[in-house]
Design a protein that fits this description.
about 325 residues, TIM Barrel, 4-stranded antiparallel beta sheet, about 35% helix
């Protein structure tokens, strides 16, 4: 199958693959630029970054690629609007936003001409997003990693959502192989978003200990936790995630990083610990099918494998 280009606003990705915005700091400039250089869309995970750090990462990515670079940011973050403005000031190509829904971000996009791409999980939110001015949507099913907005498979959502809107639909959750990409396109999606496969890449900013932990995970290790954001989240079982599944682990220090926080644990600090390789006290977010990944590959190798599989897919 010949894959279609993915057009979001005035930007055209030669390969319809968007890399998931994996926080905290798994998706930084090096990974995003590597994906963009292969013809896809690279995302920098802005959640948990200071504004100066985000500016640095965007500028670094620009020095590494002429391809499409966006950010991913949690709507639940207390400085959400300021982060979006910072990225727009730096000339970011698009803004993807999940872990909540914000009507205000569309006005920011209109002012600057920056495509806004909300992450949704229903026909209703897809239609609202289009009406408010979204340039595309990421449609996330239950297979996705991190915060979840549905318990329905993306394969059961994509046809109805694609038929309900005229803007591009980027299917996310459980996409690992070329056949998955072909399936999503045939069901009506304009492209796919992939997180887990890029989390276990050479260019991922995950510490070596975290990548090793990913590779050792088994299907029974993938669990659902309740995030302070107020949404369920999919993670790998660690000593820390086992603790928070049993009950609250109230933070000893609060950075007021969320607009509204359940205070059952500190999500930002726990994700940072995992990214740095502390898999004992860190929170390791993941997609449902992470245990199917058995090797760390470069982004170039990942794209080569995917495109070869697409060519052979039914």
């Amino acid at each position: 199958m010949k894959l279609p280009e993915l057009k979001i606003g005035s930007k055209v990705a030669r390969v319809p693959i968007q890399q998931g915005g994996m926080a905290i700091r798994l998706s930084t400039a090096r990974l995003a630029a590597a994906v963009a250089n292969e013809g896809g869309i690279g995302l920098i995970a802005a959640s948990g970054m200071s504004h100066d750090e985000l500016r640095y990462e965007i500028r670094l990515a620009r020095s590494l690629t002429s391809g499409i670079i966006g950010i991913n940011i949690m709507v639940a973050a207390s400085d959400f609007a300021e982060v979006v403005r910072t990225a727009i000031d730096e000339g970011i190509d698009l803004v993807a936003a999940g872990a909540g829904f914000s009507r205000d971000m569309f006005a920011l996009g209109r002012e600057s001409g920056t495509p806004i791409v909300p992450i949704v999980s229903s026909v209703k939110l897809a239609k609202i997003s289009e009406r408010l001015g979204a340039s595309a949507i990421v449609l996330e099913g239950k297979e996705a990693g991190g915060h979840l907005g549905t318990d329905t498979s993306v394969r059961d959502l994509v046809a109805d959502v694609s038929a309900a809107v005229r803007i591009p639909v980027i299917a996310a959750g459980g996409v690992l192989h070329g056949q998955d990409i072909v399936d999503m396109i045939k069901m009506g999606a304009s492209g796919v978003q992939m997180g887990s496969r890029f989390a276990v890449s050479e260019e991922s900013n995950a510490a070596p200990a975290l990548k090793d932990y990913y590779l050792k995970s088994k299907p029974e290790d993938v669990v659902i936790i309740h995030s302070p954001v107020g949404l369920p989240g999919r993670a790998v079982r660690t000593p820390f995630s086992a603790r928070i599944m049993e009950g609250p682990v109230p933070p000893k220090q609060c950075d007021a990083c969320l607009k509204a926080c359940k205070h059952n644990f500190c999500i930002i600090r726990s994700l940072i610990r995992a990214q740095q390789g502390d898999v004992e006290t860190g929170l390791v977010f993941t997609g449902e099918y992470l245990p199917r990944i058995d090797k760390v590959l470069s982004v170039h190798e990942i794209f080569a494998h995917l495109l070869a599989e697409v060519a052979e897919a039914n």
